[in-house]
Design a protein that fits this description.
It contains 7 helices and 18 strands. By secondary structure, it is α/β, with parallel strands linked by helices. Strands 6, 7, 8, 9, 11, 12, 13, 14, 17 and 18 form a 10-stranded mixed beta sheet that branches. A 3-stranded antiparallel beta sheet has the order 2-16-15. Helix 3 packs parallel to helix 6 and helix 4 (151-166) packs parallel to helix 5 (188-199). It is globular, with a radius of gyration of 18 Å. Mean pLDDT is 85; it is low at 1-7 and 12-44.
């Protein structure tokens, strides 16, 4: 049993209003209707149709949706370590690309809830994720009985991840942390876990937290070297005017945010009664998952890139000044929105 001074919670909730993109069945999984087969375009990018408004938005610099996704890369050759409460290995979004790794709190059932499955789907789902060919590793750090974790579990998981990464030479890696440990102070053990992973060449992508506060007050968002992701919403302007990207309600903001990504009623995988499903989710957990997928696209083309270079590349290619952080608080700066589409050279 792993014990620690701090416990933590996940940073996403199932959206209260389900998206009706599946013929009136928001949780039924009908793969042929989800996405058409991707095809390579003349410039080498991969294009397809998608029901995912998040993928649609992130592959365009301007705020619009047209039901298509076009990106350069699939994340092949990259491993995404998802620190969470368990991932469904049976979900059709993952096929044979997911493997069970570390488990700080062995239990039956092994999976605490759908949260980890959804986050992994945002990062690397076959039809709903940013990096549909990346490998996913389930790093379980949640005690299903208490629905909480511990700092000791995170540290142990970080060390295991470094060891596992070393067993797969040549395989670039990213770590996704969609949880919050504290909202008032830095947590030294969490800062140490981030440093352990970064020293091994693994970028740590973290959720900003679902709180309307400064992300610099949230751990792990405050950890030095963490890549921090806030959640954005795509909304209509006044009188059904132009589309606008805004900070989602109850999303941490401020100077510690590196980039925003969609996190408002986004379609992601889940499991219900043993069946693969699709559900609308909201929260910074989902936004972080998309950013982990983006890191995988960078590493696919530059597998030896350092965490600093990967983070710099994501920010540099993001759509600058696109997200309005204000939410009735004038004076805040506009922030970048994650972009995973083809980049002009």
């Amino acid at each position: 049993m792993h014990r620690g001074a701090a416990i933590f919670i996940a940073t996403a909730v199932v959206a209260s209003t389900a998206c009706m993109a599946f013929g009136g069945n928001a949780t039924g999984y009908a793969e042929p209707r989800l996405v058409l087969s991707g095809s390579a375009t003349s410039d080498g990018t991969v294009g397809s149709h998608t029901p995912s408004g998040a993928l649609d938005r992130m592959t365009k610099h301007e705020p619009r949706l047209d039901g298509t996704v076009r990106r350069a890369g699939t994340g092949r050759g990259v491993t995404i370590y998802v620190f969470d409460g368990g991932i469904s290995a049976e979900h059709v979004e993952f096929g044979t690309r997911m493997r069970i790794g570390f488990d700080a709190f062995p239990s039956k059932p092994r999976i605490c809830n759908d949260h980890g499955t959804a986050v992994a789907g945002a990062a690397a789902g076959a039809t709903l994720g940013v990096a549909p060919e990346a490998e996913i590793v389930d790093v379980k750090i949640i005690n299903c009985e208490r629905m909480r974790g511990s700092t000791d579990a995170i540290l142990a998981a970080a060390r295991w991840t470094v060891e596992d990464h070393a067993r797969h030479p040549g395989q670039a890696a990213v770590a996704n942390w969609s949880f919050v440990v504290d909202t008032s102070r830095a947590v030294p053990e969490i800062d140490s876990a981030v440093a352990i992973l970064r020293d091994a060449g693994i970028l740590v992508v973290v959720a900003a937290g679902n709180f309307d506060i400064d992300a610099c007050h949230v751990s792990p968002a405050s950890a030095p070297g963490a890549f921090v992701v806030g959640a954005s919403s795509l909304v209509r302007g006044a009188n059904r005017g132009a589309w606008l990207d805004t900070r989602s309600d109850n999303t941490a903001s401020g100077p510690c945010i590196d980039v925003y990504a969609p996190g408002d009623s986004v379609l992601l995988p889940g499991v219900e009664n043993g069946r693969s499903t699709v559900t609308a989710w909201s929260g910074t957990s989902m936004a972080a998952g998309y950013a982990s997928g983006a890191a995988s696209l960078v590493l696919e083309h530059s597998p030896h890139a350092s965490p600093e270079l990967v983070a710099e590349t994501i920010v540099r290619t993001a759509t600058a000044g696109m997200v309005d952080e204000r939410i009735d608080r004038p004076g805040l700066l506009r922030a970048p929105l994650l972009y995973v589409g083809p980049v002009r050279k």
